[in-house]
Amino acid sequence: MARKPYDVAKRTGDILVSGVALIVASPVMLVTAALVAKDLGRPVIFRQPRPGRGGKIFTLYKFRSMRDATVGEGVESDSARLTTFGRRLRSTSLDELPSLLNVFKGDMSIVGPRPLLVSYLERYSPRQARRHEVRPGVTGLAQVSGRNALGWSERLELDVEYVENRSLRLDLSIIWRTFAAVIRREGISAEGSATMDEFRGDERRGNG
Questions:
Q1: Of 6, 121, 123, 135, whose CB count within 10 A is highest?
Q2: pLDDT value at position 206?
Q3: How many CA within 13 A on the CB side of residue 88?
């Protein structure tokens, strides 16, 4: 459901915040790029198609945090590919800085459900698919409520809860809580996993 005054104010804020942040953070991004190149090699930017608002596909930009998969050499799983440097990069959320370009372009927002894999689109229940009624975000309600430590059903329900209750006040609260979560380095990975386990669909999807 469209909320025109809110949507206009939010998009204006996204442009201003991402534009200023890209300029202010450019020295940090240059240093991070150099460190990524040294530890992981090139390319330093990770690019991957992700679904945005309405399921429209865009290219997500992040700093690379994993080594290339090497079949037969034990470097195939995310856990094996994620280096110590990569873990530190993720724990500080510096890997997300290039996503500010996605925000500036209009692919994403500062706050919204995180953009997940294209292959997940057909696995969502009708309710879970509502997460695509808004632009995906660099941070979101699920991220400040546990990040990757949450199970999929909880995480996706929080995404829909955000869609149903979104407001500038909620956005500001999420941004504030994001800074706190990054400082505490909470919920970076699911238990027993380098990242979030693959979403294979909700057993209750028939209930919509």
A1: 135
A2: 42
A3: 7
pLDDT per position as a tens digit, 28-69: 999 999 999 988 888 999 999 999 999 999 999 999 888 766
pLDDT tens, 63-102?
Answer: 988 876 654 544 455 556 677 888 888 888 889 999 999 9
Q: Which residues contact 122 (CB under 8 A, 6 or more apart)?
A: none
Q: Dihedral of the CA atoms 183, 171, 124, 201 (nearest 10)?
A: 20
**Partners of residue 66 on adjacent β-strands:** 82
Both tokens assigned to 150:
């949450």
Pairing verdict, β 45-51 and 57-63: antiparallel
Give the residue ranges of DSSP H helices in the chain: 4-24, 26-40, 78-81, 84-91, 99-105, 152-165, 168-184
Omega of the bond leading into 43 within 30 degrees of 0 (cis): yes
Question: pTM score, two decimals?
Answer: 0.84
Instruction: Return the number of other C-beta atoms located less than 10 Å from residue 23's C-beta.
Output: 9
- Residues with Cβ within 8 Å of 29's Cβ and at least 6 positions away in sequence, in order, are 97, 98
